Amino acid sequence: QLHRRGFRCLHGVDGSAGMLERARSTGLYQELRQCVLGREPLSAPAEHYDAVTVVGALGEGQVPTTVLPELLRVTKPGGFLCLTTRSNPSNLRYKGELEAALGQLEKSGAWQKLLAQEVEHWERATSEEESTQGTGYISGVVYLYQKCPVPPFEES
């Protein structure tokens, strides 16, 4: 979808060599790197990207919430971060932890929340227990933040 809308300079990161190979086969990415988010630093220099997205990886047993400062590090001031997580029962603890970390970074002035939107039919559920009200789907949330510009230096 991003490529169809004119975004042509896409870089991808995944902890799995197999997933990177699948991404490579699409021909959509200019750069692909193996990295375990939250455990290893990203190879990009500081303030490198206009936008950073993490879709389908922020969840229980996947990427820890401690990745957020690293995502901010590689985003340009004024750039955007689009993050997602699931709202299914087995992810509620993680979602609460994620939202607390997102709120702390906003409170510190690192970024500004532009959107937090619930998506009722985020993805197909793998079990009835995970299904949102028996719909066969898991709900999720899309968060959109804008990194705050660096405040001007004030001489004293």
Structure overview:
- It comes from Neodrepanis coruscans (wattled asity).
- This is MET27 protein.
- GO terms for molecular function: S-adenosylmethionine-dependent methyltransferase activity.
- The protein has 156 residues and is an alpha/beta fold.
- It folds into two domains: 1-34, no CATH class; 44-147, Vaccinia Virus protein VP39 (Rossmann fold, 3-Layer(aba) Sandwich).
- The chain is built from three helices and six strands.
- It has helices at residues 17-26, 68-73, 92-107; strands at residues 11-14, 31-34, 49-54, 75-86, 111-124, 137-147.
- The strands form two sheets. Strands 3-4-6-5 form a four-stranded mixed β-sheet. Strands 1-2 form a two-stranded parallel sheet.
- Helix 2 links the parallel strand 3 (49-54) and strand 4.
- The radius of gyration is 17 Å and the shape is globular.
- The protein starts with 10 loop residues before the first strand and ends in a 9-residue tail after the last strand.
- Tell me the number of strands: 6
Fill in the CATH topology of the largest domain.
Answer: Rossmann fold
Strand order across the largest sheet: 3-4-6-5
Number of domains: 2
How many H/I helices?
A: 3
Helicity range: 10-25%
Question: Any low-confidence stretches, pLDDT <50, length ≥5?
Answer: none
Radius of gyration: 17 Å
Concise overview:
The protein contains three helices and six strands.
Keywords summarizing the entry:
156 residues, Rossmann fold, 2 domains, 3 helices, 33% strand
